[in-house]
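=== Structural record ===
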Amino acid sequence: MRLTVSEEESWSALNSGKLAGSVTTADVLAVYGRQFRVKVPAQIGFSRGADGILVRSEIKRVNDLKGKLVVAAQFTETDFFIRYLAQEAGLGITSLNSLDAPPNPATLNLVYTDDGFAAGDLFLADLQSGKGRLAGAVTWEPKTSEVMAASGGKARLLVSNRNLLIVADILVLNQGFAEQHPRLVAGLVRGLLEGNRLVRDHPESQLAVVAQAFKWSPEQTRNDRAKVHLANLPENLAFFNGSIDAAGSFGGIYQSAVYAYGTGLIRDPVDPARFIDLAALTAADATGQFRDQTIAIAPIKTGSPAGVENDPLLSKDIRFFFQPNSAVLDQGQSENLKNLAAIKELLTVSPGSTILLRGHVDNSLVEEFRRKGGEAFVRQMSLKAVELSRDRAGAIQRLLLERYSVQRARTEIVGRGWDEPAGGDPEQNRRVEVQWFTLE
């Protein structure tokens, strides 16, 4: 067997059988879809901090990128990373052909470079020139750190994928090869699992092996090793069956990619089950060779001083349907359950993250209250509005705890009454705003 370290996308060679296998990220399968004739027998691991979104220092959350221009490498994990977060923030995506094209004021605008390093370099050059065309860049280490160091404080890291586990590295094999050589696939997967075990359990003793393979120095090897979580057997099985509760699953990431890239790029998405072949993982499980392993994915703490308040990574407005003038959810509305699942997904893909549920109510009757009883009556009804909005946020919190077993410590609630209308539409203002705080 010959292994080659390469950044090239050799999908045509893989499809034709010139390559038996390769490594990519789970989102790529959604993009290439039906034409991608491969099988996925195992997960290699999660990227944990290798990819990051750099922004101008004044930008505090993903929502602030509306109407602005960000540079990334198309159809790489960085493209998916920014698209995923834009989708969660309720922002559409506009792809531009050049830096000079006028940005869409209602969406996040993307312009593309050949790779992530070029994206970082272009953002840094724009910062240093003072032109102000770019609001940010999505790149990977060490370019992320290089740009911040060279920016003179003009750039900040909005978020990395250290605690946002949606960039999942997977082994992909030519479909014909996988079907004709199941014993080779089983051996390859068991070798992968054993290699992951060695590097996880004995990182220093395996340092020279990894350094030699990638032609890295020992220090670079240690730094890059810290930015990946190598998957063991139970984490592999949980990744594919969707039972893991501290990271993204194969199906969840795949479906998120379908939504993030949209029908303009993925016109006829295929079922993600089409790609999965768990025979080798199941066989490895049956041997008992890895019976001592357990799921061990945990948040990476930053060590920020106690009491320091962070900005939310993003906020999104969700319309929940309640019974009139009450905090009782309308059980006949299927959208309510769908929205609850969307909130749970945010907590699932980001270990250690928390959400703040901010309740809001309609402000359309304020003038009527003022006519009936003046400012005193408006203040009285305003207090009732705050109470109702908090009760509604609390109802969402209770359902998250009861239905999805979300830890109470990961949710907070607040009622804002009618003080923060989202617009002139009364329906739009009957909402719960979700603010998502990640560890970074």
In short: The domain at 51-160 is CATH 3.40.190.10 (D-Maltodextrin-Binding Protein; domain 2). The chain has a mean pLDDT of 90. The two ends are 40 Å apart (CA to CA).
